[in-house]
Amino acid sequence: MTISLTAPVRDRRVASPRAVPKWTPPLDEDGLRHVLERITAWSPLDVEAIFDDLDTTIGNQPPPEATIPALVERLCSHLKRLSAIAVADHTFPPTDEMAQLIERGRLMQDARLPADHQQAVGMARRMAFVTSDLVEELIEARYIKDVA
Question: What DSSP string describes 56-97?
Fold first, then answer.
């Protein structure tokens, strides 16, 4: 009895070649450059910094006059980022309370900073209360994490 050491080989030729469409990238060069710029400019949400600004604004002492413009600018930035987080996921739309706070925040962001120090402090505090309520809503809904 003889044992053959060669196994039968199947014909590996393809009967009819399949047409595979040429791959095209989802973004062109400018689109990729824009994505890269956004990624490199991104910074994580710093909830502790938000609470620090809220404490400075709503604390026992009114913020010094010289710091009000920068403080209001940071509060506007916080409101924008928090609002973006609240509406980011279409499968989990913002609650009615979040939507109201977002709208109140938008109206405040469009307002001009008063020249009078007391009025500017009042505006900053109103903005801080909206920011505080929105951050608390987002923490409660588990959209963001609280400071550990």
Answer: HHHSSSPPPGGGHHHHHHHHHHHHHHHHHHHHS-TTSPPPHH
Q: What is the pLDDT of residues 23-58, one digit of tens each?
A: 888 889 999 999 999 999 988 899 999 999 999 999
pTM for this prediction: 0.74
Q: Which of 69, 46, 45 is nearest to 57 (CA)?
A: 69
Structure token pair of residue 13: 């030729």
Burial of residue 51 (number of CB atoms within 10 Å: 0-12, 13-18, 19+): middle
Which residues lie closer than 8 Å to 117 by C-beta, 6 or more apart? 65, 68
